[in-house]
Amino acid sequence: MDERNGLAVPQSLQEACDPARVALLVYDMQVGILQQIGDRDRVIAQTVSAVEAARAAGVRTYFLRHVTLPAELMGASQLRMWRAWQRAGRAADVVSAFPPDAPHTALIPELRPTEREAVLDKITMSAFEGTWLDIALRDCGITTVAVVGCAMEIGIEPTARHAADLGYVPVVLTDACGAGDKAAAERSLEALRFAGDTLLATVDEFRTALTAAAPQG
Questions:
Q1: Residue range 162-208, pLDDT digits in tens
Q2: Residue 56 pLDDT more than 70?
Q3: Backbone φ and ψ of 21, nearest 5°
Q4: Is residue 146 classed exposed, middle or buried when 0-12, 13-18 and 19+ CB atoms within 10 A define those classes?
Q5: In the structure, how many helices (H) and strands (E) does the chain have?
Q6: Second label for 193, Cα 20 to 30 Å away, from 19, 92, 95, 184?
Q7: Mapped to the 3 state alphabet, what secondary structure does 177-213 carry?
Q8: Which of left, alpha, beta for 28 (phi over 0: left; psi -120 to 50: alpha)?
Q9: Are the beta carbons of 98 and 74 closer than 8 angstroms?
């Protein structure tokens, strides 16, 4: 572990992944979103594997869902975003795409949270913006957040960047992330790699790091 001024500065995945101080964020693995992912079966299998590794190591796990307000309650930025996504000609044509109780807003059945896990609803792309996530993680002494789910180019990159700005070590498990646009997702990964504050790893590497970092005895 690198150190300066009495601070431990993680360099490796293992150093960043003390099971007591890492949280897993499962980003938007929802029925309606997975329907838009070309290799959904691979993404589901790898995300399930990441969740299983986290559970086995006692890692705190949070499931994210993207929800939308009734159009009558959307602000200008929300209307602009959904007008673009829905290719609507006018803001008046925007509809609420992911109402909280809609079947397609639900998490896929393969990823059913346990009573020891939480589901967090958001209306933003960063999992931290406007939610209770940062408060909950800091209160538990979390220093690293690992992220899996969909979609890399839409929400995972903003979440990783926001996590770094908040002082966490972001870890993106690249083989457990889906994308709606492969080229855009590759640009996101390259941007994260270039910025240097996000660790990129596979699910197997994450599992190995958790096992190696766990207290022995």
A1: 999 999 999 999 999 999 999 999 999 999 999 999 999 999 999 99
A2: yes
A3: -125, 15
A4: buried
A5: 8, 8
A6: 19
A7: EECCCHHHHHHHHHHHHHHCCCEEECHHHHHHHHHHH
A8: left
A9: no
